[in-house]
Amino acid sequence: MSDAAQSRRAGLQIRSLYLFIFLFLGGYGNFFPLWLGDMGWSDPAIGWLEALRYACLLIFPLVWGRLADRWRDSVRTLRWVTFGSALAFAPVVIFEDAIGISIALGVFFAFRVGLVPNTDSVTISHVRQTGGEYGKIRVWGSAGFIAGGFLLGFLIEQWGRAIVPIPLAILLALTWLLTLRMTPEERGSAAEERPQRRALELFNDPKLRPLYLITFLSRLASQGLFAFLPLHLQALGVSDAMMPLFWSVGVLSEIVLIRAAPRLFSSWSNKSVLTLCLCAAALQYALTAVVESPWLLLAIMLLHGLSFGVWYVTSVLHIGEHAEPGERSTAQGLFQMVGFGLGGILSSVAAGYIYEGGQGALLFGVATGLALVTLTAHLKVFPREDDAPEAG
């Protein structure tokens, strides 16, 4: 097979992987909290379950990232994390008690949290070797998120919410099978330092430390919102069939803006792009706190393309620019650990109690205040850049 054909094949495999990853997330994010509610879980209990996922994000992204760097092949790591994810989630289909579900999901989270950072690492390596744009590959995940929500919503309309874990388990198995077909990654040798020392060195890098700090603050402000948005929409009268429409609007704006980012922000620095994204986040949360019309909330969800989509892509590209190839998976794992792990666990636990105390208005109001703190910190600590980076 020619080099060009191999490159096209590898690109298609990565796109397909993003598609399957986010097919699962689209179904899980829209309906798993509602399924848990039907199983008798309270709002704080759902928050604690999300906190368990973020607790795994405190440890395992760095473990899987360092393992990929030592193997010099993130695809090999992807095979292990997808296999472990599929195996661990399977008992959720048959368990009914909260303890059994919590144990199964705890093991599942330990594997699953290594999936996205290693996929991002494979993608960055691929585009640096063959050309192209990370954002145009990543949008396949956004499309998968939309499709996953609507497909599971259709199944729920036919058979009820009790079916939720079954298609999710099937998607996890298919994702593992896909990784078995992927082309192994080729890159340079990994650094030899111990994982703890390398992680500290990466965290203290003057180009990366501000990003990690802002990522922590932004996830502290917002990550707990994701589990409770379906409950907030349900309280406003949104039906199960319409639930995926809200995230779909947000993710469609992701797709459009991520694809347009290289043209829109070609002359912008990373700091400028991230400033715009953080402003959009504060505005999105503030409007969601006060707007009660579901149709107006649909329009507000358009801000998600900036507040998360462009923010995430710019952050991943910033890491790719400043981390060496042999430590790139570790750097991406640290990004997940500090922001989505530490920030996520604090946000998720707090969100459960805040939502119980004041429902969506209070939850999104608190998020607005934290988003403004994040924006202020970003303007103060994120370094200026002489050269405008690639935005997507």
Detailed description of the structure:
This protein is mainly α and 392 residues long. It has one domain: Growth Hormone, Chain: A (Up-down Bundle), CATH 1.20.1250.20. Helices cover 79% and strands 0% of the residues. It has 16 helices and no strands. It has helices at 3-38, 43-57, 60-71, 74-89, 98-112, 115-130, 134-159, 165-180, 195-203, 209-222, 225-235, 243-264, 270-290, 294-300, 304-322, 328-381. Helix 1 packs antiparallel against helix 8 (165-180), helix 7 runs antiparallel to helix 12 and helix 12 runs parallel beside helix 14 (294-300). The longest helix has 54 residues, at 328-381. The protein is globular and about 50 Å long. The two termini are 30 Å apart.
